[in-house]
Design goal:
Length: 209
Amino acid sequence: AADLIATFLPDDVVDGLYKAVELAGLEVANLTLEPIAAMAVAIPQMYRMLNIALIDVGAGTSDISITKDGSIVAYGMLPVAGDCLTEDIARHCLVDFIMGLPQTISKEEVLSVCSDNLTEMAEQAADKIMELNGGKPVSAVFVVGGGGKIEGYTQLVADRLGIARERCALRGEEVMQKIDFLPGDIKKDSMLVTPVGICLNYYEQSNNF
């Protein structure tokens, strides 16, 4: 017997991606999924014996993957991420109507404006983790992506899962110690984990769809 996880993209989505690249005069060298790419960097193979969740909080989606017993055992996607917070700030500051005039608001004001959507994002991610993990919390959660950098997100996820707050953490520089960037002033943070994973996936050709 075998447990099999199959992840599918509709033909028209894949064909559309290839056609867009072709129209730009380019050629696809490698196609992978973002959660797989992020996992390769954020949770190396040696740690996948543990029951760990990865949340890649991007702009439009929060991608979730779960490891256990040495394998990636589940994937999930939520259509809520950093764009929700950006829209909160844009509405609050009337960005569309200011005609480019600069304005400054405090961090505390930003967090207050984003509070409801931030809580909703975190709770949906935690609930999806529980669903994918058979109704049980994971041992730890690693968060990558720009949307997950906002203060309070990791604590909210941990609280919803019922795990210690220190077991839900943003991953960035510490998982890219062996990655050298030619420009020396590049900041290794959570926003680079998935792009670096996509790059490594191309060179290793381990998950080319």
